[in-house]
From TrEMBL:
Protein's name according to its UniProt entry: ATP phosphoribosyltransferase
Species assigned in the record: Kribbella sandramycini
Keywords assigned: Amino-acid biosynthesis, ATP-binding, Cytoplasm, Glycosyltransferase, Histidine biosynthesis, Magnesium, Metal-binding, Nucleotide-binding, Transferase
Activity control summary: Feedback inhibited by histidine.
Domain ATP phosphoribosyltransferase catalytic: 49-203
Catalytic activity: 1-(5-phospho-beta-D-ribosyl)-ATP + diphosphate = 5-phospho-alpha-D-ribose 1-diphosphate + ATP
Stored InterPro entries: ATP-PRT_HisG_long, ATP_PRibTrfase_cat, ATP_PRibTrfase_CS, ATP_PRibTrfase_HisG, HisG_C, N-reg_PII-like_a/b, N-reg_PII/ATP_PRibTrfase_C
Length: 282
């Protein structure tokens, strides 16, 4: 069976469980369960701390896993990213008191507090900056006020917590992270079931990002409508009982759906409908 590591808690856990269910896999009913066997799909799921997943996969104990890109890189585990999963987005950045620094080059000789010592050390080495890395498990934004560090490197979402601590971000982002599917580095023969898992997850991601759009339009306007929404391959066009009219079905990006509906209306489309796609294969 394919052995898959899944985050056991936090936002990554909820999103990972949701996408696996949408992909047709069984998932645990209670957080007390540490493992689950999906006999029908020949997969064993192991629920682990998100920070440990890359280690288990990198050692070959488990075949693949879902974790955050930041956690994978921070672990220095022997694991490779297979695909991004579109959830758990975050940005890892420097922050400090106003005027403390403007770029990574200004951090030479300074103390930098972080919960991601591996990611930070790699980033400093990339720029040839010699600085002291102070590893903390949490509440990194308090490190400057408490005199433990001169600046910090941490995950930044809205920046509200940083401002409350009297800090501001500076420089370019260190890393942009999200949930990812990973496998052990250097595995030439993928384990059975991996390609099926990847195809299913890709299908879910496409379904989340697209909608199916149907509309009626005069046949002479079909070229103008196709220019607005060409579809992945080409639209499905069917004749209507009303002479000179056709029905069109096409996949469009969810984020563009309203704009496309406006443009289709302008070229003569009517009865324009959108419906969700729950799963697909492209």
């Amino acid at each position: 069976m394919l052995r898959v590591a899944v985050p056991n808690k936090g936002s990554l856990s909820e999103s990972a469980t949701e996408i696996l269910i949408e992909a047709g896999y069984k998932q645990r009913r209670t957080t007390k369960d540490l493992t689950l066997t999906d006999v029908a799909n020949e997969v064993e799921f192991y629920y682990l701390r998100p920070r440990d997943i890359a280690v288990y996969v990198g050692e070959g104990t488990l075949d693949v896993g879902i974790s955050g890109r930041d956690l994978v890189l921070d672990s220095h585990a022997d694991a490779d990213e297979i695909m991004p999963l579109g959830f758990g987005s975050s940005t890892f950045r420097f922050a400090g008191p106003p005027g403390a620094a403007t770029s990574v080059k200004d951090l030479a000789g300074k103390r930098i507090a972080t919960s991601y010592a591996g990611v930070l050390s790699d980033h400093l080495a990339e720029y040839g900056v010699d600085a002291a890395v102070v590893r903390l498990d949490g509440a990194v934004e308090s490190a400057v006020q408490l005199g433990v560090a001169d600046v910090i490197a941490d995950v930044v979402e809205t920046g509200t917590t940083l401002r409350q601590a009297g800090l501001e971000v500076f420089g370019d982002p260190i890393l942009k992270s999200e949930g990812v599917l990973i496998k052990r580095h250097g595995v030439d023969n993928p384990p059975a079931g991996l390609q099926q898992l990847v195809r299913r997850l890709e299908g879910v991601l496409i379904a989340r990002n697209y909608v199916m759009m149907d509309y009626d339009i005069p046949a002479e306007q079909i070229d103008a409508a196709t220019a607005v929404a060409a579809g992945l391959e080409s639209p499905t066009v069917s004749p209507l009982h009303r002479a000179g009219w056709v029905a069109v079905r096409v996949m469009v990006q969810r984020a563009e759906a309203q704009r496309i509906m406006d443009q289709l209306w302008e070229v003569g489309a009517r009865a324009i409908l959108t419906t969700d796609i729950h799963a697909c294969r492209i």
